[in-house]
Specification:
The protein is 81% helix and 0% strand. It has one domain. The protein has 479 residues and is an all-alpha fold. The protein contains 17 helices and no strands. Helix 10 packs parallel to helix 14.
């Protein structure tokens, strides 16, 4: 017999708010804290890179290279969390709270199995795996133990990603933000202690990550220890039966492939960039981190928006789901324009933070990012369309978009620039601008086609989708 599955007063209140209140208020309430959360994560990565650079330029390049390999693997857990959380949001919107509880509990069980398999296989075979990933020998020598430690941190983050996805589905964006601030404060304090005081190497940077991730895991265990709540974990509710797990896995597989392919594509780009110098990898990684100042807030609204859209569809309100997309699109374009302008205005100062006294390294960072920055607005459009597609369960299309972004618009273009031009390391920035802009245009076209299809399917008037401020009535469902 399954445990009880009911909603707390707070969860019930948010469900009514998300499904009936003004959509601009809903999107900003859910998305703004998530945008701050993603921004803080990005600043954390930037400070981490700065501390690694304090050890040596080779260390920051090793961390940048190995981080991409780690991201490729973490896509397994991250993709599972994203895809499954959308089905949890859908069940939440539909009011099937027993199914919510089963999916929450089963998702944690699947992450435990996945994490155990990764650790058993890859920790003993770390050097061989890094060679297979075309990692430069200098990075393997310095970074094998770092990579092993990162694997441990990554498996802990599997559970944390699931927890964050669950809190996002129930509208607890502020809790996510507050917990993340605690994680970052702990991580940066520990890293600063290890690097600046104890003069430790990059392995201790990873130890700091593990400690901070354990803090978030402890919070997850405490907050999900609610036996009768639909969002609480219960061993009795774990079910690996297809009826429970198949919809989550089916939706997650394209997301996993998409994220692995995207991260693997970055590994390929990093490998190709070593033709200039090993330090070019570090410059590219730093440029990507600076670009993240703009794209990470957009990602926050993407994640929050996809949950809102999925809940609206679970409740049978497709017109409301499309309104959420419109709000997200406007917000992400504004974020892209404003933050891109600021990052370019202060680019020399930002580059100097990473390069220190190495002026050539600073020039390399600036030359790459100066081009990469122009993808901010197209990537805002892309994030908004991805929110729409995730919310409607179109993960196969999101896989296509991100596959094209790397393996059509990026890797082949870089090969052409390397073999037929003399641009040098600047070609890395140019290829980022080309691929990000092309991706934004592709997403825009796909978004237009999908919205037309959705309007036909649910008998909605395409040119009468409004975003005015009114309480939603029953006729807004469009069904």
């Amino acid at each position: 017999m399954s445990p009880k599955a009911s909603l707390s007063a707070k969860d019930e209140k948010f469900r009514n708010f998300a499904l009936n209140d003004n959509m601009w208020k809903v999107v900003l309430y859910v998305g703004f804290p998530l945008a701050l959360y993603q921004s803080l994560n990005q600043f954390f990565k930037i400070f981490d890179s700065m501390m690694a650079a304090h050890i040596s330029a080779n260390s920051v390049s090793a961390v940048a290279y190995l981080s991409q390999i780690n991201l490729t693997l973490s896509a397994l857990g991250g993709g599972l969390a994203i895809g499954s959380s959308l089905k949890i949001s859908e069940a939440y919107g539909a009011g099937d709270f027993e199914l919510v509880k089963k999916r929450v509990s089963s998702l944690f069980a699947m992450c435990a199995i996945l994490g155990a398999v990764i650790l058993i296989i890859l920790i003993p075979a770390a050097p061989q795996f890094l060679k297979l990933a075309k990692t430069p020998e200098s990075f393997i020598a310095e970074g094998t133990q770092y990579f092993r430690l990162e694997l441990v941190g990554m498996v802990i983050s599997f559970f944390n990603n699931v927890y964050i996805a669950i809190e996002r589905a129930r509208g607890n964006s502020k809790r996510i933000l507050h917990l993340n601030m605690g994680v970052i404060a702990l991580k940066l304090t520990m890293t600063a202690l290890f690097v600046y005081v104890l003069k430790a190497g990059i392995n201790m940077i990873s130890i700091a990550t593990i400690i901070s991730q354990c803090f978030l895991l402890a919070a997850a265990i405490i907050n999900l220890n609610q036996k009768d709540n639909a969002f609480g974990f219960s061993a009795q509710s774990i079910s690996l039966k297809p009826l429970v797990t198949k919809p989550m896995i089916t939706l997650s597989i394209p997301v996993i492939i998409e994220k692995m392919a995207f991260s693997f594509g970055k590994v390929i780009i990093n490998s190709m960039s070593t033709v200039y110098s090993a330090l070019t990898v570090g410059a590219l990684g730093i440029s990507n981190n600076i670009g993240g100042i703009t794209t990470m807030p957009q990602m926050g609204f993407q994640e929050g928006g996809s949950a809102i859209i999925s809940q609206s569809m679970g409740a049978g309100k497709p017109k409301r789901a499309l309104k959420a997309f419109g709000c997200i699109l406007v917000i992400n374009i504004i974020i892209g324009a404003v933050l891109m302008s600021f990052s370019l205005l202060f680019l020399n100062q930002i580059s100097a933070l990473f390069a220190g006294s190495d002026k050539e390294f600073g020039k390399m960072i600036s030359s790459i990012y100066r081009y990469e920055a122009y993808g901010a607005i197209p990537l805002g459009i892309n994030s908004s369309v991805l929110a729409l597609l995730y919310g409607f369960g179109k993960t196969k299309i999101t896989l296509t978009i991100n596959f094209c972004r790397v393996f059509i618009f990026r890797v082949p273009v870089l090969w052409i620039l390397q073999n037929f031009t003399g641009l040098g390391s600047t070609s890395l920035g140019l290829v980022m601008a080309i691929s990000n802009t092309a991706t934004g245009l592709m997403a825009l076209i796909i978004g237009f086609i999908e919205i037309r299809r959705i309007c036909r399917q649910y008998n909605l008037a395409f040119f009468q989708l409004s975003f005015h401020k009114k309480t939603v009535s029953q006729n807004e469902s469009g069904i």
